[in-house]
Design a protein that fits this description.
Oligomer: single chain
Strand order of the largest sheet: 3-2-4-5-6-1-7
Largest sheet: 7 strands, antiparallel
Number of strands: 7
Distance between the termini: 11 Å
Length: 165
């Protein structure tokens, strides 16, 4: 787990809410605190979809960030900054598998609950915090370090300036 402080909040928020930088991530949860507290659970409601639509989802359990982003943007935009924002993104299963393979960690894909990116805005500061969840306890941190390193490469690729906390 690493904690990274965003240096240019305005540029980051543009990457998050306007551009497509984070669109392939899945949404685990979203909390926006403005004049109300808005909360969105990213879990898809399978009952909402027809059997044909569920087939197209190919077993996906969460909304993509690109599906929720317009809603989040509409809640955040305005003349006043939100009091706080908490977004928990989840790396897609295919990208999780890539990180796992590259890491050489002693896990199978089924052993991993998720590789998470927590985005927290509070009191004028914006932080990114990584998280790794596996189904059983392990002292091996190879996967966690690989996810941390991959995120840093991702941020550098998109010219998102951070400082490690």
């Amino acid at each position: 787990m690493i904690s990274l402080k965003i240096i240019d909040i305005k540029a980051f928020m543009s990457s998050l809410l306007v551009q497509t930088v984070f669109d392939n991530f899945l949404l685990s949860e979203l909390h926006i605190n403005t004049f109300n507290h808005f909360q969105i659970a990213g879990n898809l409601n399978e009952e909402y979809y027809s059997s044909e639509e569920r087939e197209v989802l190919e077993g996906r359990k969460y909304s993509t960030w690109s599906e929720i982003k317009p809603i989040a943007y509409s809640l955040i935009k305005g003349n006043k900054l939100p009091l706080s924002i908490k977004i928990v993104l989840l790396l897609s299963p295919s990208n999780t598998e890539k990180v796992l393979t590259k890491s050489g960690a002693p896990f199978q894909t089924a052993d991993i609950n998720g590789l998470f990116l927590n985005i927290r805005f509070d009191k004028g500061n914006l932080y990114l915090i990584t998280g790794t969840s596996v189904k059983s306890f392990s002292m091996d941190k190879t996967l966690e370090r690989a996810w941390d390193d991959d995120l840093k490469v991702f941020l550098k690729h998109y010219e998102i300036a951070v400082e490690e906390e």
